[in-house]
Amino acid sequence: MRLSHRLSHKGTHIAPRRGVFYYRRRLPMPHFGDVTLSLRTRDYKEAVRLSLALDAAFEALCMSTAVSRPDLPDILRAYLKEQLEADRAAHLTAKPGHPVYARSGTFDPLNVTAQDADLDLLTFLQSGYADAIVERDISGVEHIARGIMAERGLEG
Question: For residues 35 and 119, is the Cβ–Cβ distance under 8 A?
Answer without folding.
Answer: no
